[in-house]
Backbone:
């Protein structure tokens, strides 16, 4: 049995998780822990099956890559979380994405998600007529960071006047795009086309 099938399974699990997270974050502004725990449980089942079918060293290497991905995914949003720029659900979601996709997948998902989130933020600011105010805020944040020697970031993006957006949607979009690209690659290999 090919390891490609297990990778395809993990990619499908990740896409389903991302769709569920995006819907929940849009509808309720929350990323439920039970979605994340379900994905972790499904990955555990996949790894148990791999222990039965593949050499021990191969599976341990995959498990280590997953754990490193989880650390990178979670820690990549730790500082934005500490500065109240993202919620705890976003941090946990990226940690689970790192667990499912590994370090490279977590980084790519975060970068593509950040780009999607940036475009979305600009569209929201344009829609509510706040582009001018947004540019003023960006200059204020840059100036205050520079004046404090980049030691102190005293702004709170959850303050009055700030437009809140469920960032899990942008992260899920980035994750889905990465998964679709990888799914295409692994399906091509698995089917031998």
Residues:
């Amino acid at each position: 049995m090919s390891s490609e099938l297990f990778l395809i399974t993990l990619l499908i699990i990740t896409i389903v998780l991302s769709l569920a997270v995006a819907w929940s974050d849009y509808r309720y502004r929350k990323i439920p822990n039970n979605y994340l725990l379900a994905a972790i449980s499904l990955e555990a089942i996949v790894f148990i099956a791999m222990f039965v079918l593949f050499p021990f060293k191969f599976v341990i290497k995959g498990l280590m890559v997953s754990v490193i991905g989880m650390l990178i995914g979670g820690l990549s949003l730790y500082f934005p979380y500490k500065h109240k720029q993202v919620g705890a659900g976003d941090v946990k979601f990226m940690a689970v994405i790192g667990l499912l996709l590994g370090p490279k997948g977590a980084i790519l998902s975060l970068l593509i998600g950040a780009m999607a989130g940036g475009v979305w933020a600009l569209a929201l600011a344009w829609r509510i007529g706040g582009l001018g105010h947004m540019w003023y805020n960006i200059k204020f944040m840059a100036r205050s960071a520079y004046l404090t020697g980049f030691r102190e970031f005293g702004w709170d993006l959850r303050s009055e006047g700030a437009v809140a957006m469920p960032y899990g949607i942008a992260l899920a979009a980035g994750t889905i795009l990465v998964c679709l690209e990888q799914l295409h690659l692994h399906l091509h290999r698995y089917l031998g086309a």
Observations:
- The chain has seven helices and no strands.
- The chain has a mean pLDDT of 89.
